[in-house]
Amino acid sequence: MKIKMPEENKKQLEDIAKSFNIGKNSNPQETIKLLERLNFYNEDKAINLVNYFVTIEANPDVLMKLLKFIQKFNNKSSVNCLIDLLLFHNDSLEKCENKRTYDKVRSMAAKILGNLKDNNAVDSLLYVLNNSKESYKLRLDAADALGRIGDIYAVPSLINVASNEKEKSVYVRESAVKALGLLGDIRAIDPFIKILEKNKAVAVKFNYLREQIVRAIGRLGSCDDRTIRALEQALSDESPHVRVEALEALSQVENERIKEIIEPFILDKDETVARTAICALYDVAGRECLEDLLQKDDLPSHCKDEIILIFEEEDEEDV
Q1: Of 96, 116, 136, at which residue does a domain stop?
Q2: What confidence tens digit (pLDDT) does each residue in 109-167 have?
Q3: CB atoms inside a 10 Å sphere around CB 203
Q4: Within a domain: residue 142?
């Protein structure tokens, strides 16, 4: 996907690049200082220059400075040069012996591609995500970018990564789950349920993965029985953080069963879970439900405090 341009235009850009010490392998700090001059250029010209500079520069520090300009301009004309940087297709980088030196640069390129939300970047980001030899940080940034771009073409690959028990990095799986939550594709429901069932009582390091799955299920916005069953099962998770996520997700589901599912958790042994159950009941059943709860003798004091706080906030809004 290398960028081609007319020879006369290229010659002009090469001359300007020399004036910025771009591609000379000279003092990077001096080059970075010279790049500040771009702030005084017309924005369209500055974008054109930065996009070209990225294709011929090899110093990681200088490239990071150029990427900050690209991030600032947020212009889709930068997509191709960012993809080339992400995939090491730049002439200046293809012969690099230590590619790990550029992990931060490539991660930054992935993040910017996610911000630009251009579907043309999806295949390249998927290539990075599915390459287990890449650094986990780069792969999770690729997953995050895919979620923000929002192209459902990425859903099957993201499901595969999220479901892969052999995946070495739980962080990559978590990022794939978050991306699926952003994409909101109902195809993720069944894989999510299977992951929750397999990891229900495993090591603490998987707690956050389960949290992200429950949160993602809530984001899918489904009200069918599968979704409700999955969230109901998550309420029996050993981690209070997972139970909190499940209660918050259930409070957004429109179904007559939700109130009876949530109510027992006002007596949860974890105070945060109990307070979240109170808030969820307020969202689902309104003020009258909480007024009835206040009449119960066995209602924990922290739940009473939460109800009073909700009522005070409600009364302030009515004033």
Answers
A1: 116
A2: 999 999 999 999 999 999 999 999 999 999 999 999 999 999 999 999 999 999 998 99
A3: 8
A4: yes
- In angstroms, the CA 274 to CA 72 distance is 44
- Counting beta carbons within 10 angstroms of the beta carbon of residue 158, is it exposed (0 to 12), middle (13 to 18) or buried (19 or more)? buried
Residue 36 to residue 220: CA distance in whole angstroms: 44
Residue 201 lies in a domain: no
Angstrom distance (rounded) from CA 77 to CA 243: 44
Confidence of residue 95 (pLDDT cuts 50, 70, 90): low
Q: Which ranges constitute the DSSP H helices of the chain?
A: 7-19, 28-35, 43-56, 60-73, 79-86, 103-116, 122-129, 136-149, 155-163, 170-183, 189-198, 207-220, 225-234, 240-250, 258-262, 271-285, 287-294, 301-318
Q: In the prediction, which pLDDT does 40 show?
A: 94
Work out the angle between the directed axes of helices 240-250 and 271-285 (0-180°, nearest 10). Answer: 0
Q: Which of 6-10, 104-108, 127-131 has the lowest mean pLDDT?
A: 6-10
| Residue 127 and residue 112 share a domain | no
The range of the structural domain enclosing residue 67 comes to 1-116
Q: What are phi and psi of 164, to 5 degrees?
A: -75, 105
Query: Crossing angle for the helix pair 170-183 and 207-220, nearest 10 degrees?
Result: 10
Residues 111, 204, 104: CA angle, nearest 5 degrees:
20
Q: Which two tokens stand for residue 20?
A: 């910025």
> For residue 296, what is the DSSP state?
-
Q: What is the pLDDT of residues 267-287, one digit of tens each?
A: 999 999 999 999 999 999 999
Phi-psi region of 283 (alpha: psi -120 to 50; beta: other; left: phi over 0): alpha
Looking at the structure, tell me whether residues 58 and 129 fall in a common domain: no
